[in-house]
Design goal:
About 35% of the residues lie in helices and about 30% in strands. It is α+β, with helices and mostly antiparallel strands. The protein has a single domain, classed as Alpha-Beta Plaits (2-Layer Sandwich), CATH 3.30.70.1090.
């Protein structure tokens, strides 16, 4: 199992919209997450800094392949199209990334 964390900004005037979207995540989105071995998914909001923190666990054997499968899914693409305008990517992130990844520096099991 791999733990993944990342951060992104959120547009202040779209915080309620983002909350509303995530209070009604569609079954198709949840299904592809499960099929691609993404579990224990959480998103936290930090105000007043307007940051979103994402955490999930990956239980598969080929993260890149599963992520690409999820990214190619039409339901996921439609979901991201609704969520992305609410988000404000950080300037300091890896090229090609939307969310800025965060390395784990401590874990207590």
């Amino acid at each position: 199992m791999q733990r993944h964390a990342s951060v992104i900004g959120i547009e202040p005037d779209r915080i309620q919209e983002y909350r509303d979207l995530h209070s009604h995540v569609g079954e198709g989105v949840l299904r592809i997450l499960a099929e691609c071995h993404f579990t224990n998914c959480s998103i936290y909001l930090r105000e007043p800094e307007n940051l979103l923190f994402s955490y999930f666990e990956y239980t598969g054997v080929n993260f890149a392949a599963d992520y690409n499968r999820m990214a190619a899914d039409p339901i996921t693409q439609a979901w991201w199209k609704r969520c992305s305008p609410c988000q404000r990517p950080l300037e300091q992130r890896n090229p090609g990334d939307w969310w800025a990844t965060m390395p784990e520096v401590f874990h207590l099991d």
